[in-house]
Write a structure and sequence with these properties.
Blueprint: E1 20-24, H1 28-33, H2 39-59, E2 64-71, H3 79-102, E3 105-110, H4 118-130, E4 137-145, H5 147-163, H6 174-179, E5 191-194, E6 213-216, H7 226-238
Bound molecules: 3-methylbut-3-enyl trihydrogen diphosphate (2 copies) and magnesium ion.
The site of one 3-methylbut-3-enyl trihydrogen diphosphate has 11 residues, from helix 1.
């Protein structure tokens, strides 16, 4: 496995880099409040953290990075904050898409597109289309995303196929349902990181997280950087993944 880790020569090469890291980027508001700044400033600094982490993920040999950018439940925030978050997404795509493309990043988007303003939908589609042949790193943006909604949509599509006589009920297995989720070709996350000290999934990738290692870090998202990501990967490497079986002999 290619692994560009070189900044910590005191540590041996890590046995295992997670192929897919998903991040619940939390704590922007508390980061700002602790500094007497408006919440929007926390979100702006959060975008800078995102840039650092995309770069570091690529350098560290991660293949898929999923980021929780806006949840289905975040609509319950004040309109001004929702406006800030949507403005940042627009600016992120407009300003960073060319760089992401140059760096070989493929952008994918999961979540509900209907109900989003047309210009945002166009930007998301443009990002996916421009970068569709890139292979260095896949950046999955979970925007207007909720895991329960994603699973319910999959159930609806399967139910429609049954109602239309195109599918037998018995063919619906866990594998089938998984194939009807938003990004069925992307492997489940090996590790889910949540920043800010909160320890919950908040409707993020609940189906896909069945065997993900959960890593909770106390720092707020705007302070997250390459070192913090390396720390989370080191924690991941110490975990023993069993998938319901027995402990594997690691040989180390
Ligand atoms: C994460 O930071 C960003 C989004 C949820 C969009 P928060 O805005 O949730 O920050 P806290 O949790 O209030 O500190
Ligand atoms: C989860 O964070 C959503 C995103 C990071 C986009 P929240 O801050 O919305 O989650 P809760 O409300 O604390 O569970
Ligand atoms: Mg939060």
């Amino acid at each position: 496995m290619s692994n560009g880790v070189s900044s910590h020569p005191e540590e041996p090469a890590r046995p295992e880099t997670p192929r897919h890291v998903a991040i619940i980027m939390d704590g922007n508001g508390r980061w700002a409040a602790a500094r007497g700044l408006p919440r929007g400033e926390g979100h702006r600094r959060g975008v800078e953290a995102l840039r650092r982490v995309v770069r570091a993920s690529h350098e560290l040999g991660i293949s898929y990075l999923t980021i929780y950018s806006f949840s289905s439940e975040n609509w319950s925030r004040p309109a001004t904050e929702i406006g800030d978050l949507f403005g940042l997404l627009r600016r992120f795509i407009r300003n960073d898409l060319a760089t992401l493309h140059r760096d070989g990043v493929r952008v994918r988007v999961i979540g509900e597109r209907e109900g989003l303003e047309q210009d945002i939908r166009a930007l998301l589609a443009e990002a996916e289309d421009l970068t569709k042949d890139n292979t260095a790193l896949t950046l999955v943006v979970a925007f207007n995303y909720g895991s329960r909604q994603e699973i319910a949509q999959a159930a609806q599509r399967l139910a429609r196929e049954v109602a239309d006589g195109k599918r037998a009920v018995e063919t619906i297995t866990a594998d089938t349902l998984g194939r009807y989720l938003d990004a069925p070709d992307i492997p489940d996350p090996d590790m889910i990181i949540r920043t800010s000290g909160e320890q919950r999934l908040s409707n993020f990738l609940m189906w896909q997280a069945a065997y993900s290692e959960l890593v909770f870090v106390p720092i707020h998202w705007p302070d997250f950087d390459r070192a913090a990501l390396e720390g989370a990967i080191a924690e991941y490497a110490r975990r023993e993944r069993r998938f319901g079986g027995l402990a594997a002999k690691t040989g180390s």
